[in-house]
């Protein structure tokens, strides 16, 4: 996303069984944790910060400035799919903040549970790099942002979810996403 124009709000609606799991996705620094936490509160469902499930080796690799590859991500993605399966099977639903950079990852999540829906927080590289550089206490260094953009496959037509401009006020994003989720339930 070269990104001077805001992304289209391409809401893909379909009838989803309750409970719905919303995956708030995007590159590091896009606001996934903030928006995801607020959205979970609004929908009154559990929230998972996917970074919390990264194995220590993955965290150490990223902290050292080395990007993860698909082999590194696989156990982490499988644990996230397990969380989705549990959230849907238990009947509670949930919201998860996860980069979900590639369609194949999102496909894995959709196979894990009925009703998975994506909220893609689209953000230009410069803003993402600036946000990540300004964070303290996080293992993801700003120099890895370019690797995330190299791997990023934005939501495609037919994938359930919507794309929003991550530069917008998080409360406005949550309002829009909550309305979209309620409309498909």
TrEMBL record:
Signal in keyword set: no
Top EC class for this record: transferase
InterPro entries membership: P-loop_NTPase, Shikimate/glucono_kinase, Therm_gnt_kin
Coiled coil: none
Catalytic activity: D-gluconate + ATP = 6-phospho-D-gluconate + ADP + H(+)
EC number(s) per entry: 2.7.1.12
Pathway connected to this protein: Carbohydrate acid metabolism
Domain of life, source organism: Bacteria
Pfam families in UniProt: SKI (PF01202)
Family listed: Belongs to the gluconokinase GntK/GntV family.
Protein name in UniProt: Gluconokinase
Organism annotation: Streptomyces katsurahamanus
Phylogenetic placement of the source organism: Bacteria, Bacillati, Actinomycetota, Actinomycetes, Kitasatosporales
